[in-house]
Design brief:
- The chain is mainly α and 194 residues long.
- It has one domain (6-193): Arp2/3 complex 21 kDa subunit ARPC3 (Orthogonal Bundle), CATH 1.10.1760.20.
- The protein has 6 helices and 2 strands, in the order αββααααα.
- The protein has helices at residues 6-24, 42-52, 54-72, 80-103, 106-139, 147-193, and strands spanning 27-28, 37-38.
- The mean pLDDT is 91.
Length: 194
């Protein structure tokens, strides 16, 4: 695996800052619970992954969540939501990155984004059922949800929410990618030379 150079670390820092700002510009979707928020902070992480490799994308996801935790805190006192956001972002960008690197075309990017959305949505439903929903109830001292309640929350809310979130991110990213594709390829080539 290629080591990250100083330019990569500076770029990761800048993209993490942009991702953090985008994370602050979150908004709810009316049919879903208020704790499920849409934001476009995975876009800078995906750009980092495309230019500098998957580790860079993971670092952007990590740094934006650390920044957000220290700046805004957490209702639980423990960064359960931030950990969930980090994992969701990684589950979205890694499949997208790997599919795109195999197909290297706009169609490949579209397929990658659809696969990334699907992996994220299904995985986050399972993780919410087994890990995050129980953690929220534990740290918020709320009555524990029954297994059927957690299952219906995961299937009726979290799964469709993450599909919609992934598709919205994919749509916005494809608009950006159509304009920046040549620049991203050039930056990737320059980074591989350095």
């Amino acid at each position: 695996m290629k080591k990250l150079n100083v330019k990569a670390f500076v770029s990761i820092g800048m993209l993490s800052s942009i991702a953090y700002i985008l994370m602050l510009l979150n908004f709810p979707l009316p049919p879903f619970p208020n704790f499920l928020m849409i934001d476009f902070s995975d876009i800078p992480a995906l750009i980092a992954a495309l230019i500098f490799g998957p580790i860079a994308g993971i670092l952007v996801e990590l740094f934006k969540n650390i920044l957000d935790y220290f700046m805004t805190g957490s209702a639980t006192g423990v960064p359960v939501g931030h950990i969930a956001n980090f994992i969701a972002g990684v589950l979205f960008i890694l499949p997208t990155y790997y599919v795109y690197t195999k197909l290297k075309s706009k169609k490949g990017m579209t397929v990658g984004l659809i696969i990334g959305t699907s992996v994220m949505a299904v995985s986050m439903s399972l993780l919410n059922y087994y890990v995050f929903l129980p953690a929220y109830t534990l740290f918020l001292n709320m009555p524990a949800m029954s297994a059927p309640e957690m299952k219906s929350t995961a299937i009726l809310f979290i799964l469709p929410f993450n599909f919609i979130k992934g598709l919205l991110i994919a749509l916005v990213f494809m608009l950006i990618f159509a304009k920046m594709n040549t620049w991203i390829a050039k930056q990737k080539a320059l980074n591989s030379i350095a």
